[in-house]
Amino acid sequence: MANLHWEVYVIEDPQKNAFVLPGGKIFVFTGLIPIVQDEDGMAAVLGHEIAHQIARHSAEKLSWAKILIVAQLLMAYIFDPGMFFSRLFLELGVLMPFSRKMESEADYIGLRLMAQACYDPAAAVGLWERMKEAQRSSKLLEYVSTHPSPEKRIQKITEWLPEAEMIREKSDCEHVMFGIFVQKLTGLANAKIPSDRIHHG
Prior knowledge:
201 residues; mainly alpha; 3 strands
């Protein structure tokens, strides 16, 4: 994973979503930006997507997909008239809970990653509170969704916050943030200012 060249692409689309592809390519839809709001919020999103890659969730999904195909063929052979219902049973009973588990795992790893990178882990709670307002999803939609509800995510992230905040404290963030501040100042000092923007007193 250390050798991955991470790339972030922005897609002009109103969807409130982001995803990662194998190889470290992360895609963020512009519809998510108003929900993200700030740098800490974006760190929560990117941390979550990076966590999917670290945990090799894409490979796990592929393995499970192969198993599901075999299971669907077997159930189709046994319950031929109920093929649709057998497929629905597999998706609701196996695939969706498994996907939710991966999402929760990515939330946990992503929270630790953003804290270690000196971002405020509490921003992840704010992110999902805003997402909850944007989605206003019902319990039925949560049940048939591959993602946990925003309410459940907020609950779990709040439980993990003390651990994440401890990680942030151990990451020498004051020194890191001061270094970034100095870097920005140096960049400003070295920037070429157009002559028409210079006013002499």
